[in-house]
Design brief:
Distance between the termini: 45 Å
CATH topology: NADH Oxidase
CATH class: Alpha Beta
Helix content: 25-40%
Radius of gyration: 20 Å
Structural class: alpha+beta
CATH architecture: 3-Layer(aba) Sandwich
Number of helices: 8
Order of helices and strands: HHEHHHEEEHEHEH
């Protein structure tokens, strides 16, 4: 069946309540204040976070736009202590090799001021790990295989939605990408058509949590208006 033979997607009206221009600025400024307070956290409390909160955060991530509406993401949320330990042990093996052999001197120089190393306590301390996978293919109802489009970009947007949602709820996270991450597919029992994208430990910051005092680039360094 060609694209021309397929029935068009059903449409529905979309007219959200229009916000007056002056209130748009107010709302955006308020969102900026919230977003500016977000920090990446490596020191987590082990205090429990309700599963319902994680479920809704993933639902929010699932509202992200995607190429051809293929929604090429899959989220594995892990609270089981033994599974988190397995993830940590495997990740630390890869990170140890990264810091010892794989990273370039320039990369290590950039990481040096942040004080990071191969120890990843956050993977077992945080009450939740959300492992995000990118689906490169999906199986149709008739058993045929269909490619997804702009999967990398789509999953990146969904992760952005997820991080913002967690922060809005008062939860902290960290984007952790050990390389390679193929061990996650086996640990999570996912098919070869899915590629690990990122690990997000999720929880409350520890009571003694500290973060680097880093400044974000100002508007004029990251944008221009014409």
């Amino acid at each position: 069946m060609s694209a021309n033979d397929r029935a068009p997607v059903r449409t529905i009206p979309y007219q959200p309540a229009r916000v007056p221009a002056e209130h748009v600025v107010e709302r955006m400024r308020a969102q900026l204040g919230v977003a500016s307070a977000r920090r990446t956290v490596r020191q987590f409390s082990s205090a429990a976070v309700p599963r319902a909160a994680i479920e809704d955060a993933i639902r929010i991530a699932g509202t992200a736009p995607s190429g051809a509406h293929k929604q090429p993401w899959y989220f594995v949320a892990i609270a089981d202590a033994e599974t988190k330990l397995q993830v940590r042990e495997a990740a630390e093996r890869e990170e140890r090799a990264f810091y010892a052999d794989r990273a370039t001197p320039e990369w290590l120089d950039a990481l040096g001021p942040l004080g990071t190393d191969f120890h990843k306590e956050h993977l077992t301390t945080a009450p939740w790990l959300i492992i995000v996978f990118r689906r490169d293919h999906e199986q149709n109802a008739d058993g045929s295989v269909a490619k997804t489009y702009y999967a990398q970009e789509s999953v990146g947007i969904a992760v952005g939605f997820l991080i913002a949602a967690l922060h809005q709820a008062g939860l902290a996270t960290l984007t952790h990408t050990p390389a390679p991450m193929s061990f996650l597919r086996e640990l999570c029992g996912r098919p070869k058509s899915e590629k690990p994208f990122v690990i997000l430990p999720v929880g409350y910051p520890a009571e003694d949590c500290v973060v680097p005092d880093l400044a974000r680039k100002p508007l004029e360094e990251i944008s221009e208006f014409r």
